[in-house]
Amino acid sequence: MPIEHRALARASLLTIAAASLVVVCAEAGAANLGFLNNTPITYMKQRDLQALNNAAQKALDTKQDGESLDWNNKGTGNTVPIDGTVTPQNSFESDGVKCRKITLVARAKGQTQTWTPVACKASDGKWKLKKQ
Fold it and tell me: Which domain holds residue 54?
């Protein structure tokens, strides 16, 4: 086979391989997030997340470890009712900063979802999630 044909064949093979890889990766990425379907977070819009954040800030500032604060998305404009609890846990100090593990619960359409991040109080007085 002439060298030009080999180069063209190789380029075609690489293009097909790359296209196949993109398709497989896209399908895998979608499949990896499939477990989130129909969970409360899939129904949450930005204003719902803000309502949850506001509840978390209030709970972290005012509640004792193990004491819960109820929250909901009423008034956010979302047609899907979402509610839950915010429960600060395990207060501790890390690098001279006050931190707390927090349990966030959201319920929507008969499904419940729970997260347990760690939040630390920033110099501006707001609680921020600690990078894991």
Answer: 40-129
